[in-house]
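so i finally got all the pieces together for this one. its two components total, 529 residues if u count the protein bits. some of the lines might not be protein, just check the labels. i wanna see the whole assembly predicted at once instead of chain by chain like last time, that was a mess tbh
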Amino acid sequence: MPSITFIHHDTRAETVSANDGDSAMYTALLHGVDGITGECGGGAVCATCHVYVDDNWLGKVGTVGADEDELLEGVASERLPNSRLSCQIKITEALDGLVLRLPERQV
Amino acid sequence: MVATVTTASPHTPPVLSFGGGVPDDASSQPIVHLDVDPFAMDFFADPHPTHEVLRQAGPVVYLDKWNVYAVARYAEVHAVLNDPATFCSSRGVGLSDFAREKPWRPQSLILEADPPAHTRTRAVLNKVLSPAVMKQLRDGFAAAADAKVDELLERRSFDAVADLAEAYPLSVFPDAMGLQKEGRENLLPYAGLVFNAFGPPNQLRQDAIERSAPHQAYVAAQCQRDNLAPGGFGACIHARVDTGDITADEAPLLVRSLLSAGLDTTVNGIGAAVYCLARYPQEFARLRSDLSLARNAFEEAVRYESPVQTFFRTTTRDVEICGCRVGEGEKVLMFLAAANRDPRRWADPERYDITRKTSGHVGFGSGIHMCVGQLVARLEGEVMLSALARKVASIEITGDAKRRFNNTLRGLESLPVTFTPA
């Protein structure tokens, strides 16, 4: 099972195991990781599952789609070049060890 | 009410005979028939015990009163919502099957549509009601909530439904839509009509449709481009005609969707939240000590009360739901409210807990049809609960809460309360 490390805004790190094929958002909710809200449950509507992808992983998590790009304009914390919506990051074995930083707030 | 559980007996017809076309398969689970009318007044008065009967009876039940299948457990409701290819919306999301009956009004291009048609119209409304748009609206909506609570604190005692749950959305949503000032009194009756019309041909539905002509005429006029102020949601929808995303004929119908579902739902959502905070003062105290809980306190009220109680889907093929066979062309009633209190999914489901992890509740639906206005609803709910928590020390219920009856919506007709200022 691939593992994902979420680094909270206060630098606390939380490593959880993910099911192949689940989204990073779903994985966070499943393990009760605070800092991912996911109000819309993964429908790419709400922009409350914002993460900053660690630079080492940026090339491996795929690219930002047009709808996601528009949603990222509405995130509550600052949008950075490595901003993603975690509902749009699908976990595969290739992402084992993925590091995602959490923003200060989601709403 | 007492629900009579009629398990399959020699007197009941074979369950799988409904709808035809389903092979008699010994491996499938028998489906329990229930003598429950979820659109009757006595059910509306207190649906929770019957919801428990529905959940306990099985993953799928059959309601003889209206000849429909129904799901009331969280897992099955969630599964049906998230399989739109099998459980379609284009044959109507009420009891009426559009394949057999003419819809009472022109079919919705989003609610009563399936992919790929739905995908295009949904994308337009998603953009009109996006997180970025909510950011722009936030300050104005928050100021209006503060002003409303200040006004109510002057009065101290009032009706929390008419003067708060209705008055606040009415003070922000029609302007955000870009509606003209005249005729807004038609909005709530029109929405009540739409949500009653999802139900069966009972008195509620018939009365609503009989009285609907003036409300329908008002809404039809308001959906036209010339009647919508620049910058509002309505004008933004029409602007998508110019970009080629939708046609000029489609735009008014998409505006109509927001007028149908954008007001009464938030009225009942905010009403539910105020009713919860008034009944559970400890939760109101927790909110007052941590204002960052306002948004989740609203979300939890939507789970707890489920302002939208039910929706239907129609099967597009023979399907097995948790071992229960359902034929093609069958209506399946989803009890969103029962799913939101299913103990299989929620710890202590009967408790209103403003710190609960609410993600996954189906009060706004789930999947591709999940409420397109959910961000507007949450914004209104959050800023109103934040204003209450900052300005009000206690909310006391001072008279009987009177229930309002609707085939789909759950909410109150009136709730006399007294505010004590903070």
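The domain at 3-101 of chain A is CATH 3.10.20.30 (Ubiquitin-like (UB roll)).
The helical segments of chain A are 24-30, 66-72.
anyway lmk what u think
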